[in-house]
Amino acid sequence: MNEIIIIAGVLGLALGFFAGYFLKLKAMHKKASEIVKEAENEAEVIKKEKILQAKEKFLQLKEMHENVISEKNAKIAETENRVKQKENSLNIRKEEFKSKLKEFEISKQEVGAVRENLTKQLEIVEKKNEELEKLRRQHIEQLENISGLSVDEAKSELIKSLKAEAKTEAMAHINDIIEEAKLTANKEAKKIIVKTIQRIGTESAIENAVTVFHIDSDDMKGRIIGREGRNIRALEAATGIEIIVDDTPESIVLSSFDPIRREVARLALHQLVTDGRIHPARIEEVVGRTKQQLEEEILETGKKTAIDLGIHGLHREILRLVGKMRYRSSYGQNLLQHSREVAKLCAVMASELGLNVKLAKRAGLLHDIGKVPDEEIEIPHAIYGMKLAERYKENPEVVNAIGAHHDEVEMTSLISPIVQVCDAISGARPGARREVAESYIKRIKKLESLAAEERGVVKTYAIQAGRELRVIVGSDKVTDKEIEELSFNIAKKIEEEMTYPGQVKITVIREVRAVHYAK
Q1: What is d(CA 66, CA 68) in angstroms, rounded to the nearest whole number?
Q2: Which of 24, 119, 351, 518 has the fewest beta carbons closer than 10 A?
Q3: Which contacts of 219-228 are long-range, i.e. CB under 8 A and separated by 24 or more positions?
Q4: Whole-model pTM?
């Protein structure tokens, strides 16, 4: 009985298991059918999308193909049009060629007629030449009979006269050559001087005896004068200058022969007017302070000048004298500017001659320090400057160059004549002293215009500060024999119509040029 129960239990469990398994199989089959159905639906959707994409691709390819075909058709049409145009142009050229061929045939006939005409004219010319030759022979025979000379004798007489004339002209040329040789005896030295002048160009500053001080309003004039003139008297006593207050609007004139005094007065007045406190005590205080400031500025100017020129080791007192040159003029030429210029000229010339450039530049800068003494002197400025250089232990060659640049002492080194020459160059160049720049320019222009008035002159150039005039003439207008006369005429005209220093050399240039182009 128990076994039956156990078997029944096992069978029940087995049936339950199989029933559950069957239900699971059924559920799985149902799920599988659903998955298959979904897969079929997705496949259908993908299929439709692919079909649509294929249709779109086909349409794109079709459109591209149509575009390519239309472009090719357009090119073919364009090519056909070009071919038609070429055919038309060929037809036109063909017609033109035919017409030109007809013209050529006509001109060929005309050339034949012209050739016959020229042949006849040549025969006539030959006959006339023969007649002229006969007449020439007859004329020579008549001249021989009249003169009593044969042709060979006449030639010899002509040669003799030409020799005498050539000898006279040769003597004139020899004299000219001798004069030119005298002028060019020191050719190399002059070359060096000209090179030096050409390599240096500076401006000239002109110092006057008065300085104009500008003020904002004329009311300030009364304050500067002060009650009963106390302020102006105190200012004149403190600075040592004359102050001129007149009706000139917004300006006061400071008059003195000493540029340093004028500069002290100008700076002091500027401070007083700016501050507004103007009375005798204040004036003395400001003038004293201004003098000290100006002394410092003078020393700084000397130092800056030495640095600019590359000169080192100068004594402080020498530097102060160099700075003081800024407020001193010589024949209207600023002394500091002149000394800087001489220093540069000396450096260039010493370089050309292979001498000590630094020493020459130092001597050029210091050659006029004797013109700015602190006290009254009775000896020449060159001697005083030499003594100052000795006192402050300058090089003996520099000392000699300072003392000898006006021949007060004997020259003992090659730097001394260089300083003397460069001092003369700086003082004698146009615009440096006395001569105003405007009058110099007018003189140069007049010099060129006088030469330009002559026949055959193409261009004129005044060079070397108006000491030489170069005249270029046209080769087709003036011969080689005429240029000597042209040069003489220009020189005479300049002598008669102009006033100028020294002499002017007139050089007439005639040249023939042949120009061709390689292409």
Answers
A1: 5
A2: 518
A3: 220/273, 221/245, 221/252, 223/278, 224/252, 224/269, 224/272, 224/273, 224/278, 226/278, 226/279, 226/280
A4: 0.44
